[in-house]
Structures are given as structure tokens and as C-alpha cells.
Amino acid sequence: MDETHLIAESRLRVTLFGTFKLDAPDGEEVVVPGKRARALLAILCLEPGVAVERVRLCELLWRGRFRAQARASLRQTLLGLKKQLMPFQADFFDVTRDTVAVNPAAVWSDLAELESALARGPKSQASELLLKISNRPLLGRLEFGEAFQQWLDARRAQVEQRLQRAVEEALSDLHGRGDAREHARLMDGWRLRRPASAADESDARVRIAVLPFKTLSPDHTADHIAQGFFDELITTLGQVPELLVAGRGSSLNVAGAGLPLPEIARTLHVSYLVQGSVQRDSDEMRVHVCLVDGNSGFERWSQGYRGNTGNIFGLQEDIARAVSRELGNTLGLQMQAPKHRRTTSSKAAYELYLQGRALTARAIGDGVLAKAVELLEASLAIDPKFAACWTALAEAHVYTAVYTPCLDRAAQSARMAECAMRAIELEPNQGHARAMLGIHRWTLNDPVGALDLAYEAYRLEPDNPDVALRLGSFLLYIGRTREALRYIEAAIDQDPVNGRNFAMLSVAHLNLGNLEAAIMAGQRMVDLGLPSMWLAVATAASGDRRLAVEQYWQTRLLMNTVIFPPAGTKPLTGPALDTYWRMAARGVCSGRTVHRKVYCTMLDYLHATLPDPSDTSIVAPAIWMGYAGMVFKTLGAQITPANMYCLMSLWADIDPIRNVRLHPDFMVFAEKVGLVAAWKKYGWPDLLPAPDNR
Fold first, then answer.
1. Is residue 380 within 8 Å of residue 414, measured between CB atoms?
2. Does residue 589 contact residue 540 with C-beta atoms inside 8 Å?
3. Pair 121, 248 in one domain
4. Rg of the chain taking only CA atoms, in angstroms
5. How far apart are CA 537 and CA 515, in angstroms?
6. Is residue 458 part of a domain?
7. Do 541 and 633 lie in a common domain?
8. Are residues 187 and 213 in the same domain?
9. Number of domains composing the chain
10. d(CA 228, CA 246)
11. Is residue 369 left, alpha or beta, with left meaning phi > 0 and alpha meaning psi from -120 to 50?
């Protein structure tokens, strides 16, 4: 056991960030009566061992009283505290005629622990503490007038400056040792902590969204070219340091909603919109682009371009440069021009790539992804060094494994990994490819490798919401919910109309016990057209089981559109479909043991008869119903890109889900699928203390 643990176990524990709190060595809270007694203790615990003049304490806490009266009140408060704390430490205070101090051997604060971890390590503990403390103010909720506030503001500034120096030194040390993962975690923790006066660099960036380009050609021959302009402009403008570009998924989803432009800008959390259109006549193209003010909906700038299909790359580069230049002129900023992106020199390969990317973005539909794979493979046959196409092909394979009822999910994952690795070989700075490669590591029971890749991906592409969400989801899977929430919220901030983001957010809040927030996120997911199971589970946890059953049952309406039947089976229809979903809804949400037993029996039958015995339709309800044996038989046999998301639901501390985590075989399962190894490297789950602390 290290020195920090020994100190924490032998001293009273003081919480200085947020609301002041005092805990006994056994973890029991020591309730200090009286707001001035709590404030006095908090002031002295800021720097244990450092004496504070009695006169100063009186000025801060009893300002406006006569001097003798204030000193008497201070003496009385000290006597009360001494008496209360005597059982823990006989000499808790060091008191003289003129000064008062706290014995440094009596207390250990969250501030002292953070500074110790930053200075002496482990740095992983410092990152953990920063994430836990987040942006809570030092000595929050203490109000004793203007003089006290001035003193508190000065002390907060001193502490923040001290922490900033310590963080900078720790980051320098991590950089020197080449520890990129921990460097990224510490940086993220400090960004959460940094006060509003020291705004993060990203706060000053201009937020912009690119809307899908319209096709004006009646024969739709320019559809894939329009998709290409949309796709490439997002990527290219994302390289401009002064811009923060909204995610592709949200731009696609909101564009078809028929909303006024200012409403679209508000929905996407952006100040400016880029709109465009493409008209093709044989090989000739006319492209029109405009920059729209998100507040007013009026055009700020527009430009027409002429070219041919052989000059698509040049047109894209010209347009991206023009948009960034015009934004700089409008805002009075000197913006860096986007760097040239290497794609391919082959017009034929590029057109096939654009068509494949467009189909991959659609994802849902009979044969859509198979056709996307075919087109992308044809593109690579022409230009095997087309890195972006290798990444697109990797994405098409992982989408096939997740969104279609395929029987070769493991094979699709392996093929995805081959494509992602090829993309990284050609372009080593590809973060998105690394994040997808992390998915495959999960299928090999290697969450450590998955998280290593996800952290490296985030270091390379911190402004890619898909990368941020992937890292957040991986942390959710290992039970690190508080840490995951930061990345999930960042992804939603940049990609706010993407339903899968809200699935992660709903589960994160459910795991943290924030039921109202979980329900709100679940409802937003439903509003965006995704299944309502998470909403139903959160609603059931809130106690409204009748409504939860109805919400779960409504999911059947998405069958064969968003939800597909298990691989190798025929879809249910009519009364059979309604009966199955009613049984499922009652089993998961009613709270009645008989309903749960009936549905668990059905899961036994499905596990014995389905071509894929680890299908999501078995795994997810098994977790929600606390059917531990089935969880271990399915996820323990094979984690796939389709069922791995179920891992995030293991970490809700509610009945009956907690039955899985509390099952005597859970740690055996966790060891088998690599979770224990991940906990040893990245920290133990919020709901499982590290072995030394059990």
C-alpha cells in the first residue's frame, strides 16, 4: 500500500473543492454544526500547519461585531470544534494567544492529495482527481460578505496558479517520457478544471457547420459529387485551427428537417453555416457556395465556381480556402489556410469512393452496405494507396457488422481491422482509423489495446466527435462512467443531432444515478428515431413501470427499419411480433418476477437456437434483467462489434442489473474478457473499489 493510501486511512479527510465536507478515517461523515464553524475549519484546512491570526479570522467570519464579541465567538467556536474532534485527534488544533492552525498530521485534503499526485505521482491519480473535482470551486457555498469574498477570490486565484504550474510540470514530464495516453488524460482533466477566466483555446474558435450540398442536375448524376463536397469540406475545414466544425451525422440529420436556417444553426450549436449546390452537365460542373450568418439566416458571402469532374480536388481546396478566408475577413481574424489533403490522383477511384461513402452514410437499407463495400473495393483496386478510402472501407465493414443481420460479424471485424491498419500505414495521423481498430481489439478480449488506440486516436483528432465518442464509449464499457461522461458530452456538443450519442449519454446518466437526465437523453434518442429501450429502462428505474413497459413495447415499430431480426432468422410480423415485444417489455420493465422468468426462458431458447448465440437480442435484455448466467455465456463466448455496446449497461447500480455485477462468477468473467487488465491500467470502475481498498 503506497504512502498516499496510508495517509488517507489515518487522517480525517477534508473536501475543499465544492461544498466543504469532513469525513472520518472510516469514511463516515463528521457533521460540523454551524456555518461559521464549518467555514473556520475550511479556512484552516486550506494550509494545515500554517497559523492564521485570530484578528484576521474575526474579520472574515464575524465582521461587523465588536472586537471583543468577535474574539469571544471565535473562542467559543474553537472550543466546540475541539470537543467534537477530540475522539479523532487530541491535538487537532495548534492554538496560541494570537493565532490558530490545524495540525497537519490530523487532516488530509483533496487539494493536498492532488498536489502530491502532480508532484510525485502517480500521474494517473492526478488525472483521476482532476476529473473527479471537475470545475467545482474551492470552498463553494461559503458566503460571509464582501471582505470574505475578496479573501476567497484571492485564495482561489493562488491555488489555481499553483495547480497550473504543477500541471504544466507534470505534462512536461509525461511528454518527456513519451506517455501520450496519460498526457492526454491529464490535459483533459485540467481542461475541465481550468476556471472560466482562463478559457480553453477551443472556446475562442468559430463554430461552423457544413450542410449537405444540393444537387441541381435532374438525372442525379451529381449526387455523389455533392456528397463528396460536403464530406471533404467538413474534413478540410476541420484542419483550420480557428474553426470547430459540427459533426457529419448531425449536419445530415438536421438538413432534411425543413427548419429555418437560424433554427438549424441553434440546433447544431454553430454561428455560421456553409451551404452549396452542384450542377453537372456531362463532365462540366457548376458549384455555388455561400456562407450564412447563423443568427439572421442571411448570406454573408457567396461565390460560384466552374470546373470539370477532373478538377474536383482543386475545386474543393479552392472552396475550403475561400470559406476560411471569408470567415477571417468577417470576424477580423487571421485564419490559417487549410492544408492540402492527399486523396488520390485517379478521377475514377475518387468517384467510386464518393459513391461508396454516400452509401455507407445511409447504412440502413437492403444491400446498401454490401454495395458500399463493392464500390470502395473497386476504388482501391484502381488506387491501393488511397488512405481515406481504406478508412471508409473499414467503416463500411464495421457498419455491416453492427447494422445488418450478418452471420459473419467476427469476420467483418477482422476485415475492418485489416483496412484500418492499411489506412494508418499510409497516413499515420489517422485518428478515426485507430478508433475503429480499437473496436476489433474488444472482439479479441483486449480492452487495454482498445483503450490505448482510443486515447491515441483522441490525441491525433481531438475535434472529431466520432473519435471522442468512441473513447467515451470504451470507458463506459469498463465502468469508468464519470471519466467517460466528459468525452460523451464533448461529442454531443459538436454532433448534437446524432441519436447514438444520446444512447451513450442516457446510459452514462443511468449509471451515475441521474435518472431524470437519463430519461431526457433517452427521449432525445427516441425523437431522433432510435430504439426506446434505454428510455424504458431509465423510466422503469424511476418507478414508473407502466409507462416503461409501453415505451419498450413501442420499439417494435422500428423493426426492419432501424432494428433487424437476429441473423439467420425470418422477421416476425403481425400478432407474433406484438406478442414477442409485449413479453420482452414486461420482462425488462414491469419489475414482476414472473414476467422476468418468462422472458429469461425465452432467452434460453434463443441462445440454444439462433445461429448467433451471442446476438444483441439476447445480451441486452439479459443484462437489464440481471440474468448473470446468460451474460457470461454470451459476452463471455464472443464480443462482437454489434453486442459490445451492451457492456456499458453493466454499470447501473439498480435492481436487477446489479445482480450481474454482484454474481460470484462476475470477476471470473471480467478476467476472461480482459476487463480486469483494463482496470489495472486505466483505473477501477466507479462501482468497484480497487482491491487494496476493499
1. no
2. yes
3. no
4. 29
5. 10
6. no
7. yes
8. no
9. 4
10. 17
11. alpha
Q: Express each pLDDT in 181-216 by its tens digit.
A: 787 778 777 766 664 333 333 346 788 999 998 888
Residues 546 and 633 occupy one common structural domain: yes
Same domain, 621 and 472: yes
Cis peptide before 122 (omega within 30 of 0): yes
Q: Show the domain range for 681.
A: 463-693
Q: Residue 338's pLDDT band (boundaries 50, 70, 90)? A: low
Q: Are residues 418 and 519 in the same domain?
A: no
Separation CA 35–CA 374 (nearest Å): 70
Q: Are strands 272-281 and 284-293 parallel, antiparallel or unpaired?
A: antiparallel
CATH number at residue 267: 3.40.50.10610
Are residues 633 and 660 part of one domain?
yes
Evaluate whether residue 469 is within a structural domain.
yes
Beta bridge partner(s), residue 651: none
User: How far is 260 from 294, CA to CA, in rounded Å?
Assistant: 10
C-alpha separations of 73 from 22, 101, 239, 684 in Å: 22, 17, 61, 46
The three-class DSSP label of residue 290 is strand
Asked whether residue 445 is domain-assigned, the answer is no
Asked whether the beta carbons of 245 and 210 are under 8 A apart, the reply is: yes
3-state DSSP percent of the chain in helix, strand and coil, to 5: 60, 10, 30
- 73-123 residue pLDDT tens: 989 999 999 888 888 888 888 888 889 998 888 888 989 999 898 888 788
CB 555 within 8 A of CB 533: yes
Which residue is listed with cell 488517507?
Answer: 8
DSSP 276: E
Q: Are residue 137 and residue 181 in the same domain, yes or no?
A: yes
Q: Could you tell me the three cell numbers for 679?
A: 482496470
